[in-house]
Structure prediction request, 228 residues.
Amino acid sequence: MPRSTDITRRIGIGGTLLVAAAASLISTAPAAGAAPADTAAACPDVQLVFARGSGEVPGLGIVGDPLATKLKAALPSKTVDTYAVDYDANWSQKTAPDGATDITRVVTEISARCSDTTFVLGGYSQGASATAIALGVPTDFGVGEVVPEALAPRIAAVVTFGDPLGMRKQTIEQESALYGDRAKTYCTDGDPVCGAGVNVLAHLSYVVNSSIPDAVTFASSKVLASKN
Prediction:
């Protein structure tokens, strides 16, 4: 089993490249995150909660932004709100538990006031670790608050990209009895963060390959099934 320092070193290989790519893409993407003040109290049909990757500026990030756009398009009859997980996402990888705690608190808070809202959870890179921790799946990065088991039926789908769990040859779908049938992990061949690859560009390819469209198809089908 790889140590967290091994994973951090691998992730750090492409640190400068990832930040540059993220900055370039985010600068042209619409800002996203918590619901605007005038709609914050509303109850959407679907709430996307997404955690960005290491080094990305606050927001949904280079994977979360297009995922949100495509998910809304795939569910035209549903109201879909987005929430960008509030955590530092620093290069040490030690902030994933903070992300997990924020995910848990947001899901708990919205569930308490919105009885019909269904959730889609997701994360990229370190954000995938935060998502795993929030769902009670052990990682190499510590522990945070876990979504109460009573709220599990409210979570329709979980999609993660470049998940460091892959370094342990694990996925959320394999490791979670509660969420395994609603989870899907994406790891591009050659990605050094979720596998044994050495191609840093592979860790950035989720924005341009078929992962996001496939994740949207998966998540939207789970949402629709949960609403029937």
Q: What stands out?
A: The first strand starts at residue 46 and ends at 51. Residues 4-32+42-227 form a domain with the Rossmann fold fold (CATH 3.40.50.1820).
